Task: structure prediction
Amino acid sequence: QSSIIRILKTNCAPADNERDEVRSLLIDPRAELEAVTDDITRLQARLADVQRRKCELSSYVEDLSALLSPIKRMPPEIMTRVFDFCGDVHVRGPHCEPSRRAPLLLGSVCRSWRALSLSMPRLWTALYLDLPTSGDFDRQEAIF
Result:
């Protein structure tokens, strides 16, 4: 084996009698390499399963945590006032940035917000649409 180790550090080819020795030395490491490769494949599959389960649990925890959100306990009367401020383009303040898209945005959050926003006619007194001002209008009109 010492002659094989010596040859490893050179660019020389093993002699005929050394080739048989190299072949016999390869048997155990090749078998172990195959076993290690199989272990890695098995562990990667297990890791994928565990990661999938983690994602499922994270989603479930997030959904359950959302149920505890204070906004869920907010009375509709107060939410109506908040929605009013969001939709009032005349309101200005340091923490208030009204949006012309407020009715559409508020209605797209969840089912209860949609129902609440649709029940508020004053949110819908004006609907702002961004229409193109160039020749793209004809092309967009054709799409609809």
